[in-house]
Amino acid sequence: MSHIANALRIAWQMLREIFDEAAYTRFLERNQMSSSPGAYNLFLQERESAIARRARCC
Amino acid sequence: MNKIFSTFVWLGIALLGAGAVGMVAIHRGEPINALWLVTAATCCYALGYRFYSSFIAARILALDARRATPAERLENGRDFLVTNKWVVFGHHFAAIAGPGPLVGPVLAAQFGYLPGTLWVLAGAVFAGCVQDFVILLFSVRRDGKSLTEMAKEETGVIGGVIAYAAVIAILIILLAAVALVVVNALKDSPWGTFTIAMTIPIAMAMGIYLRRIRPGKVLEASVAGFILILLAIWGGQWAAQTPAVAHVFTLSAQTLAVLIIIYAFAASAVPVWILLAPRDYLSTFVKLGTIGLLAIGIVALHPTLHMPALTRFVDGTGPVFAGKVFPFAFITIACGAISGFHSLISSGTTPKLIARETETRMVGYGSMMAESAVAVMAIIAACVLQPGVYFAINSPAGLVGQTATAATTMISGWGFPVTAAEMETLAHAVGEQTLFNRTGGAPAFAVGMAHIFSQTLGGTTVMALWYHFAVMFEALFILTVLDAGTRVARFMIQDALGHIYKPLGRTSWYPSILATSALIVAAWGYFLWQGVKDPLGGINSLWPLFGIANQLLATVALCVATTILIKMHRAKYAAVTLVPLAWLVAVTFTASWQKIFAANPRIGFLAQARALASAPTAKATERLILNNQMDAAVTAGLVFMVALVLMESLRQWIAILRGRKVARVSEVPFVMTRLSEERV
Lengths: 58, 680
Hints:
The structure holds 2 protein chains of 2 kinds.
Chain A: H1 2-18, H2 21-30, H3 37-53
Chain B: H1 2-26, E1 32-33, H2 34-60, H3 70-73, H4 85-96, H5 100-108, H6 113-140, H7 147-155, H8 157-186, H9 190-213, H10 218-241, H11 243-249, H12 253-269, H13 276-301, E2 304-305, H14 325-332, H15 340-346, H16 359-383, H17 387-394, H18 397-400, H19 404-413, H20 420-429, H21 442-456, H22 463-498, H23 510-533, H24 539-567, H25 575-597, H26 605-614, H27 619-657
Antiparallel strand pairs in B: 1-2
Helix pairs in contact in B: 1-2, 2-6, 2-16, 4-16, 5-16, 6-15, 6-16, 6-24, 6-25, 7-8, 7-24, 8-12, 8-22, 8-23, 8-24, 8-27, 9-10, 9-11, 9-13, 9-22, 10-13, 10-22, 12-22, 12-23, 13-21, 13-22, 14-24, 14-25, 15-24, 16-21, 21-22, 22-23, 24-25, 24-27, 25-27, 26-27
């Protein structure tokens, strides 16, 4: 049972990382902010270049 | 006891794999079950991962779990971050899996299922996975440096400049080729066009939701976006059946090409949160779900492959694209076997997330195996169709004729019986006016996928929904590649122009954004327009050109990898990268030579230009002649550049091996890791 729970936890982490939710959480922790439209705007500004430069394969 | 048991298990897998590959390769006459391909692939991947990648990891690369990676040493919570290996695996796979492994194998199915399957399996295990793995490890040992930076360091300035130019060229040709696939999938299809058009406001609504309403909740926004897309697919049926709406969304290939060019320019110039980021999230969400669903569908239905193992078109006379099985099968299928583009991802975000060197094996080698498995699924989706149907969908009107009767007569004459009534019934079942001349691979894949899905879930009554789901899935993928690719190319051009005039390098300066976006869009728009106007369907020219460019980038990556191996005093093992390199050189240089100089106008660009020139002159003909000459020049330019990298690398290898040059690797010095097992 714990193996299944562990697999599900990792799958959830994977999805959060792929979809940048984890990056946003780290941004909030690093800057000691709580989630808000303003904080997300700042996060997007910081990530804009990284997201835009992220190559997507064919 | 455990060792004996393990030996027996692996021996069993090897025997099963050999039996399955033998069945796939030797069986002739009667159709075979798709499970043979699945079994052959599973066994090959298991053996390749367990033994070959392990050999490379231990003997050649000497992976060291105690060596601190850049993710640990340079951790900043942004680019560099120690991340769980499975999370990195998912991240890397999501970045490398695009429309390529779906489209290429479908096009190459004109040779039969055998050439594509063998190339996908052998190519992945011995070339593609190796390339992704070694480039990832070498980037990790160089603080996450990019391929172009490594090429410059290891093979000299020429290598760096050529790698840079090759990346730009590949992006341009790739964007044109995939845009043409979308155009061919959506032309005269009000249902598909309506659904794809709706993804733009849906993505924008997601962007606003994420920015204003529930900041950062990407997963829930993606689920909501996915539900809206399903509604858009359902709404597409209404659009197609309502004459006034259908009229608006029934567009010609030219109109669609212009709209896509305008769309890509706008998407490249607006901030990422409006369109690019939400569409990227949405397409990744749909991609991961659909690939999983397709795998389940294939195993559950285990359909029969109707395409023969080999068709008569191995002789080069194929209607989908011209050229013999060697070299054209090997450049048509890139992403499922080996793709140079992957080396950019392996030296991009991924090396900055790896916690331990030993994990590069699973992430680099393992993700490429998963990508290869997607290509096997695409081969199955194409080959479950009756061959006559497959060729009717994929053959251009310029070759088989404009009418249904002419096309079916010609295709049946090739030995692949199909009737106009059969095609009409199928078109009706998938909600299209016609399925003739739908070149590009996407519609054939969508029909195959709809066939598999509808047999598994819902029956033939929902086949039209599954078909348009598949078209939406591919088009969404491709539009994301268009958005992201145009923007990545823009940034690269801006970085280069910044050295000439500083403001041009500022990625937030609008005159520079507009000028460089226009430049990139004009470049791939030119090739797209050329493809749309091509009487042979465009894919015949563009996809091989893309394949050549992509495999040439893989050649550059393998040159870099071989140079580093020799500098690491691993020359006796250099065959692991040299053999795939030699194969790619043989394939791409032969293909390039044939595409430029072959006497057959369907293959050689210059021969086609000459054939057009001998026809009565018209303005359109002049443009076609120029297009063919341009394609020949681009191909020659790419080959010339890669030949320079090869010669420069060869010069270095000889100098090092003869002791004339000191073998100095530019790795970051060893630093002991401080990570505990629990940390990762």
